[in-house]
Amino acid sequence: MSVAGQYDCVTKSPMGDQKSVLTVNVDGDSWTGSNAGQMGALDITDGKVDGNTLTWTMDMKVPMPMKLEGTATVDGDTITGQVKAGAFGTMAMTGTRKA
């Protein structure tokens, strides 16, 4: 099963649970997309696919400029991973594929 699709995600941030929709568009061993939530949408950069594992970066502007680094594993319709947010440490992320 492809890791491509849209996932309803929750990231456990210092500001509470952040809900978002992660869009994964796979092209070979790379991927593009976005993570859209209450603070707007962040474009995925440097997206890589290794089997069912995704890695990526996002440049956050609001509420402060920061580079976010994500890694996640897709298992069927479930995505589980983490987002590293500089000095704020690592935040857990989970989600399910949208039908």
How would you sum up this structure, described in words?
The protein has strands spanning 5-13, 16-27, 30-37, 40-43, 45-50, 53-60, 66-75, 78-84, 90-97. The two termini are 14 Å apart. Strands 1-2-3-5-6-7-8-9 form an eight-stranded antiparallel barrel. It has a single domain, classed as Beta Barrel (Lipocalin), CATH 2.40.128.120. By secondary structure, it is mostly beta strands. It is globular and about 35 Å long.
Q: Report, as a whole number of angstroms, the end-to-end distance.
A: 14 Å
CA radius of gyration? 12 Å
Mean pLDDT: 95
Q: Name the strands of the widest sheet in spatial order.
A: 1-2-3-5-6-7-8-9
SSE string, helices as H and strands as E: EEEEEEEEE
Which secondary-structure class do the elements indicate? mainly beta
CATH topology: Lipocalin
The CATH first-level class comes to: Mainly Beta
The largest β sheet comes out as: 8 strands, antiparallel, barrel
Strand content: over 45%
Tell me what the CATH architecture is.
Answer: Beta Barrel
- The DSSP helix count reads 0
